[in-house]
Specification:
By secondary structure, this protein is α+β, with helices and mostly antiparallel strands. It has four domains: 60 residues, Beta-grasp domain (Ubiquitin-like (UB roll), Roll), CATH 3.10.20.30; 166 residues, Threonyl-tRNA Synthetase, Chain A, domain 2 (2-Layer Sandwich), CATH 3.30.980; 243 residues, Bira Bifunctional Protein, Domain 2 (BirA Bifunctional Protein, domain 2, 2-Layer Sandwich), CATH 3.30.930; 95 residues, Anticodon-binding domain (Rossmann fold). It is built from 20 helices and 35 strands.
Length: 646
């Protein structure tokens, strides 16, 4: 008998070699139909694999990330089987899961083509294969046998992958007549897949290397119920309407130019003003928390990034070094701000009484992304980070963490990111050799993060082994209006850079000590944050942030001058407005400006002009009555103050 521990701490005894599926059946037949994979001592496995020793388990359904992974990974295999049926001689690359679904990279036979017109027959074939309810059978294979199998099949991509694997670690999965190289996990059988949609095609270089052959990447998504697919496609349609690339163009916020270069956004006047307000908003918060603003160059000597380790990490994927007329002198476009801030710290001796020191900068950095990876503002080659670095003593770490969390949580509240979670990334429980810094400092740092999160009452997931080699971190994940997850806000402890740059302060014991460094970027990057904000709000920005807070709509040309007078009065109250002077009917003006997502529409005609008042409409709420301009201005100011109160 073996002891099986459930997530609630309950321990039950079972016969050795029991499977996860059998455990689910012992609980309820309903659960057995819903469960897709099992966690055994922290490792996700097939439900049908025997458990031969005491274990802590967790059963995963489709709503769990691990369940989705098994479901979509299995679906990728079924799609590959369907593609082989239609394209004899097709060669298969890799077929992993992605955030929403899966893909398979394939090398089509010479002369064959795959287009959107083929999606329906491919979907039908996948469902046909699914209905066969073929078991996914896992087999451990020697390296020589694995090579023999795929060499005889003529699938050089699989042969290349196998050559990189260690003998004794290789497994095949088979369903029906189809066999693939895979580590799993997979579903018990194909019959659980009930709905499928082929989403798109793309080109992808084999193993991400531009020197390799370009394969065809087929994206798909599947669900255990047709209703779930229907809901997902409806959500996708909503996402299209909220796409920041579409709205950014409509709202005249940003643009791209092939002459300027791919992945290098141009901020238009309205977008630049919106971005400036975001920056000023955070600058005010940072001033309240005693941050010191700094400015650093857009380039740096190559030696700076060799010292920091960034050249080793980003060098191959960065813009190439800039060579100067001076022999052997090389500069790089700045990939990170932190090395520069370390050098600022070193400009003078520091005492324990000086700490903490908080340097903040909206610093633009540059990283070379492959053209196929670029996506609007979310993946660019030049972006501005709301970067800050805190240099503190170990005993100040928790307090500084709490203060940074206060800033992050304030931003989420003001911008109405109300649904968020957090992940604490700590060291591996067993393997400590790869981490830099003393055991004592790591324990203090990890405990400081755990305590800070608990003190704030945040429900956080703890992930062991996810910490960077130079320190633990806290990541915030927000859900937008469509339920999509975005990482916004990271707080990272760093013992590495203070060591590399030999940063010091004189302690109360008159000895020299290393400070602890905290990296912090609540927005992440201005570009990505604005993209997320556009899609979260559908372009209906908070009143304090929106480019235009009000538009004045004269009923006819006779009232244009009064409309301009109203706009000027509002300007005195720092309210952003403009006059729509077009010779259009008032109904058309209202509709057009509502589409521009302007919060307040002010209508003026003869009655308003004679009484020196305005008629007010609010976006999404309709008529708000007749007010004096001063009353309206005070109302807006009060509304903004209530939003921004700390």
């Amino acid at each position: 008998m073996i002891n099986i521990t459930f997530p609630d701490g309950t321990v039950k005894q079972y016969e050795s070699s029991i499977t996860g599926l059998e455990i689910a059946k012992s609980i309820s037949s309903k659960l057995a139909k819903e469960v897709l994979a099992i966690g055994v001592n922290g490792q996700t496995r097939d439900l049908t694999r025997p458990i031969t020793e005491d274990a802590t388990i967790q059963l995963y359904k489709f709503e769990d990330e691990e369940g989705k992974h098994a479901f979509w990974h299995s679906s990728a295999h079924i799609m590959a089987e369907a593609l082989e049926a239609f394209y004899p001689g097709i060669k298969l690359g890799i077929g992993p899961t992605v955030d929403n679904g899966f893909y398979y990279d394939v090398d089509l036979p010479e002369g064959a083509s795959l287009t959107d017109a083929d999606f329906k027959k491919l979907e039908d074939k996948i469902l046909e294969l699914s209905r066969q309810k073929n078991d996914f059978i896992r087999t451990e294979v020697s390296k020589s046998d694995a090579l023999k199998t795929f060499t005889e099949k003529g699938d050089e991509y699989k042969v290349e992958l196998i050559n990189d694997l260690e003998d004794g670690t290789i497994t095949f999965y088979q369903q029906g007549q189809f066999t693939d190289l895979c580590r799993g996990p997979h579903l018990p059988n194909t019959g659980l897949v009930k709905a499928v949609k082929i989403m798109s095609l793309a080109g992808a270089y084999w193993r991400g290397n531009e020197n390799n052959k370009q394969l065809t990447r087929v994206y798909g998504i599947t669900f255990p119920k047709q209703k779930m697919l229907t809901e997902y496609l409806e959500q996708l349609e909503q996402a299209k309407q909220r796409d920041h690339r579409k709205l950014g163009k409509e709202l005249e916020l940003f643009a791209f130019s092939s002459r300027v270069g791919m992945g290098l956004p141009l901020w238009l006047p309205k977008g630049a003003a919106l971005r400036e307000r975001l920056e000023n908003f955070l600058k005010k918060v940072q001033k309240d928390f005693n941050y010191s603003p700094v400015i650093t160059p857009h380039i740096g000597n190559k030696e700076l990034y060799i010292t920091s380790g960034h050249f080793a990490k980003y060098g191959a994927d960065s813009f190439q070094p800039i060579h100067t007329p001076q022999e052997n002198e090389e500069y790089l476009l700045k990939p990170m701000n932190c090395p520069h801030h370390c050098e600022i710290y070193k400009t003078k001796p520091r005492s324990y009484k000086d700490l903490p020191i908080r340097f903040a900068e909206f610093g633009t950095v540059y990283r070379y992304e492959q053209s196929g990876e670029l996506h609007g503002l979310t993946r660019v080659r030049g972006f501005t980070q709301d970067d800050a670095h805190i240099f503190c003593r170990p005993d100040q770490l928790k307090e500084e963490f709490l203060k940074v969390m206060d800033i992050v949580l304030y931003i989420f509240r003001v911008l109405k990111f109300e649904d968020f979670s957090a992940q604490i990334s700590l060291r591996d429980k067993e393997d400590r050799a790869k981490y830099i810094g003393s055991e004592e400092n790591w324990e203090k740092a990890e405990q400081a993060i755990v305590d800070a999160v608990a003190e704030k009452g945040i429900d956080a997931i703890v992930e062991y082994g996810e910490a960077a080699f130079y320190g633990p971190k806290l990541d915030f994940m927000v859900k937008d209006a469509l339920g999509r997850k975005w990482q916004l806000g990271t707080i990272q402890v760093d013992y590495n850079l203070p060591e590399r740059f030999e940063l010091e302060y004189k302690g109360s014991d008159n000895q020299m000590h290393r400070p602890v460094m905290i990296h912090r970027a609540p927005f992440g990057s201005m570009e990505r944050f604005v993209a997320v904000l556009i899609e979260h709000t559908a372009g209906k920005f908070p009143l304090w942030l929106t480019p235009e807070q009000a538009v004045i709509l004269p009923i006819s040309e006779k009232y244009n001058e009064y409309a301009k007078k109203v706009s000027k009065l509002l300007e005195n109250y720092d309210i952003r407005s403009f006059v729509d002077e077009r010779n259009e009917k008032i109904g058309r003006k209202i509709r057009d400006n509502e589409l521009k997502r302007i919060p307040y529409l002010i209508i003026v005609g003869e009655q308003e002009m004679n009484d020196e008042v305005i008629s007010v409409r609010k976006q999404g709420e309709g008529d708000k009555g007749v007010l004096k301009v001063e009353e309206f201005a005070q109302q807006i100011q009060k509304e903004i103050e209530e939003i921004l109160v700390f």
